[in-house]
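pls design
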């Protein structure tokens, strides 16, 4: 919200701001400066079958994070 209001720059995960980047509300600056990648883990109950809701969520999260990674690595144009 602070950066969207024009109060300066921030360091944020691309997964958190991909919609704002795509819409032009935020602009990527200093692309050569970024934090180290942070691992993300999903803890689930053990068992043979995962609930459909859990599988759906994990698949969506993986897709969203893969998309954010692609945004981070795409050249500026």
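designed seq:
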């Amino acid at each position: 919200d602070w950066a969207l209001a024009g109060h300066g720059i921030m360091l944020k995960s691309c997964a958190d701001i991909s919609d704002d980047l795509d819409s032009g509300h935020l602009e990527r600056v200093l692309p050569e400066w970024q934090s180290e990648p942070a691992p993300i883990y999903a803890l689930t109950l053990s068992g043979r079958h995962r609930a459909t809701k859990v599988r759906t969520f994990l698949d969506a999260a993986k897709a969203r994070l893969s998309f954010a990674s692609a945004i981070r690595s795409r050249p500026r144009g």
